[in-house]
From TrEMBL:
Residues 110-129 have a biased composition (Basic and acidic residues). PANTHER family: 60S RIBOSOMAL PROTEIN L24, RIBOSOMAL PROTEIN L24. Keywords: Ribonucleoprotein, Ribosomal protein. Belongs to the eukaryotic ribosomal protein eL24 family. This is Ribosomal protein L24e-domain-containing protein. Residues 1-66 form the Large ribosomal subunit protein eL24-related N-terminal domain. Residues 110-161 are annotated as: Disordered. GO terms for cellular component: cytosolic large ribosomal subunit.
Length: 161
Protein backbone atom coordinates (compact mmCIF):
# COMPACT_ATOMS: atom_id res chain seq x y z
CA UNK A 1 0.00 0.00 0.00
CA UNK A 2 1.41 3.39 -1.05
CA UNK A 3 1.56 6.05 1.67
CA UNK A 4 2.74 9.65 1.50
CA UNK A 5 4.22 12.00 4.09
CA UNK A 6 2.40 15.15 5.09
CA UNK A 7 4.39 18.11 3.71
CA UNK A 8 3.78 20.19 6.85
CA UNK A 9 3.57 17.80 9.79
CA UNK A 10 5.60 14.90 8.41
CA UNK A 11 2.99 12.33 9.46
CA UNK A 12 1.90 9.43 7.27
CA UNK A 13 -1.08 9.84 4.89
CA UNK A 14 -2.88 6.61 4.01
CA UNK A 15 -4.74 6.04 0.71
CA UNK A 16 -8.10 7.79 0.48
CA UNK A 17 -7.15 10.37 3.11
CA UNK A 18 -5.67 13.86 2.94
CA UNK A 19 -5.64 16.74 0.52
CA UNK A 20 -3.44 17.57 -2.45
CA UNK A 21 -2.36 21.17 -3.04
CA UNK A 22 -0.59 22.20 -6.25
CA UNK A 23 1.13 25.58 -6.23
CA UNK A 24 1.44 27.88 -9.26
CA UNK A 25 4.96 26.63 -9.98
CA UNK A 26 3.58 23.05 -10.20
CA UNK A 27 5.05 21.95 -6.85
CA UNK A 28 2.81 19.36 -5.15
CA UNK A 29 2.05 19.48 -1.42
CA UNK A 30 0.16 16.75 0.44
CA UNK A 31 -1.65 17.37 3.71
CA UNK A 32 -3.12 14.87 6.17
CA UNK A 33 -5.96 17.16 7.23
CA UNK A 34 -7.24 20.73 7.08
CA UNK A 35 -5.30 21.66 10.21
CA UNK A 36 -1.89 21.08 8.62
CA UNK A 37 -3.05 22.65 5.33
CA UNK A 38 -4.27 25.77 7.14
CA UNK A 39 -1.01 26.16 9.08
CA UNK A 40 0.99 25.69 5.85
CA UNK A 41 -1.05 28.36 4.06
CA UNK A 42 -0.49 30.71 7.02
CA UNK A 43 3.23 30.16 6.40
CA UNK A 44 3.81 28.77 9.90
CA UNK A 45 7.13 27.11 10.59
CA UNK A 46 6.57 23.39 11.36
CA UNK A 47 9.72 23.36 13.54
CA UNK A 48 7.93 25.69 15.99
CA UNK A 49 4.70 23.71 16.25
CA UNK A 50 5.01 21.10 18.97
CA UNK A 51 3.01 18.21 17.44
CA UNK A 52 4.87 18.08 14.09
CA UNK A 53 7.52 15.48 13.32
CA UNK A 54 10.10 18.20 12.54
CA UNK A 55 9.63 19.78 16.00
CA UNK A 56 9.92 16.41 17.75
CA UNK A 57 13.03 15.52 15.77
CA UNK A 58 14.67 18.90 16.46
CA UNK A 59 13.96 18.70 20.21
CA UNK A 60 14.86 14.99 20.46
CA UNK A 61 11.46 13.79 21.61
CA UNK A 62 10.38 10.16 21.60
CA UNK A 63 13.83 8.71 20.83
CA UNK A 64 14.38 5.46 22.69
CA UNK A 65 17.30 5.40 25.13
CA UNK A 66 19.32 2.82 23.18
CA UNK A 67 19.27 4.81 19.95
CA UNK A 68 19.95 8.17 21.65
CA UNK A 69 23.16 7.13 23.42
CA UNK A 70 25.58 6.11 20.74
CA UNK A 71 29.04 5.21 21.84
CA UNK A 72 31.70 7.18 20.06
CA UNK A 73 34.81 5.32 19.02
CA UNK A 74 38.08 6.59 20.34
CA UNK A 75 40.66 7.25 17.69
CA UNK A 76 43.68 5.01 17.92
CA UNK A 77 46.93 6.75 17.12
CA UNK A 78 49.38 4.60 15.19
CA UNK A 79 53.05 5.51 15.28
CA UNK A 80 54.78 5.33 11.92
CA UNK A 81 58.41 5.63 10.93
CA UNK A 82 59.62 8.87 9.33
CA UNK A 83 61.97 8.92 6.36
CA UNK A 84 65.51 8.62 7.67
CA UNK A 85 64.50 7.30 11.11
CA UNK A 86 63.01 3.90 11.90
CA UNK A 87 60.31 3.37 14.51
CA UNK A 88 62.81 1.87 16.99
CA UNK A 89 65.05 4.95 16.79
CA UNK A 90 62.09 7.27 17.33
CA UNK A 91 60.89 5.29 20.38
CA UNK A 92 64.41 5.22 21.78
CA UNK A 93 64.80 8.99 21.40
CA UNK A 94 61.42 9.60 22.99
CA UNK A 95 62.27 7.47 26.02
CA UNK A 96 65.58 9.31 26.72
CA UNK A 97 65.84 11.24 29.98
CA UNK A 98 66.14 15.03 29.71
CA UNK A 99 69.67 15.02 31.23
CA UNK A 100 70.94 12.50 28.70
CA UNK A 101 69.27 14.40 25.87
CA UNK A 102 70.80 17.74 26.91
CA UNK A 103 74.25 16.14 27.31
CA UNK A 104 74.02 14.64 23.81
CA UNK A 105 72.90 18.01 22.43
CA UNK A 106 75.83 19.83 24.06
CA UNK A 107 78.26 17.21 22.73
CA UNK A 108 76.86 17.62 19.20
CA UNK A 109 77.15 21.42 19.45
CA UNK A 110 80.75 21.17 20.68
CA UNK A 111 81.63 18.78 17.86
CA UNK A 112 80.12 21.12 15.26
CA UNK A 113 82.01 24.10 16.71
CA UNK A 114 85.32 22.19 16.68
CA UNK A 115 84.76 21.16 13.06
CA UNK A 116 83.95 24.74 12.06
CA UNK A 117 87.03 26.05 13.89
CA UNK A 118 89.21 23.44 12.23
CA UNK A 119 87.93 24.35 8.75
CA UNK A 120 88.44 28.07 9.49
CA UNK A 121 92.03 27.39 10.57
CA UNK A 122 92.69 25.37 7.40
CA UNK A 123 91.24 28.18 5.28
CA UNK A 124 93.39 30.75 7.07
CA UNK A 125 96.54 28.65 6.50
CA UNK A 126 95.66 28.29 2.80
CA UNK A 127 95.16 32.04 2.49
CA UNK A 128 98.52 32.75 4.18
CA UNK A 129 100.22 30.29 1.85
CA UNK A 130 98.71 31.89 -1.26
CA UNK A 131 99.61 35.37 0.04
CA UNK A 132 103.21 34.25 0.55
CA UNK A 133 103.29 32.84 -3.00
CA UNK A 134 101.89 36.09 -4.38
CA UNK A 135 104.51 38.10 -2.49
CA UNK A 136 107.20 35.86 -3.96
CA UNK A 137 105.82 36.42 -7.46
CA UNK A 138 105.85 40.19 -7.00
CA UNK A 139 109.42 40.04 -5.72
CA UNK A 140 110.43 38.39 -8.98
CA UNK A 141 108.92 41.34 -10.85
CA UNK A 142 105.87 39.49 -12.18
CA UNK A 143 102.67 41.54 -12.11
CA UNK A 144 99.44 39.60 -12.36
CA UNK A 145 96.03 41.06 -12.81
CA UNK A 146 93.09 40.28 -10.56
CA UNK A 147 91.64 37.97 -13.22
CA UNK A 148 95.03 36.32 -13.70
CA UNK A 149 95.31 35.53 -10.00
CA UNK A 150 91.92 33.84 -10.25
CA UNK A 151 93.20 31.60 -13.03
CA UNK A 152 92.13 33.42 -16.20
CA UNK A 153 94.10 32.83 -19.40
CA UNK A 154 96.78 35.43 -20.09
CA UNK A 155 96.24 37.94 -22.91
CA UNK A 156 98.10 37.10 -26.08
CA UNK A 157 101.15 39.35 -26.66
CA UNK A 158 100.67 42.08 -29.22
CA UNK A 159 103.10 41.84 -32.15
CA UNK A 160 103.68 44.95 -34.23
CA UNK A 161 105.33 44.83 -37.69
Amino acid sequence: MRTYDDTFSGQRIYPGKGKLFVRGDSKVFRFQNGKSESLFLQRKNPRRIAWTVLFRRQHRKGISEEVAKKRSRRTVKAQRAIVGASLDVIKERRSLRPEVRSAARLAAIKEAKDKKQESAAAKKAEKAKSAAGAAKGQAAGRVTSKQGSKGAAAKPAIHSR
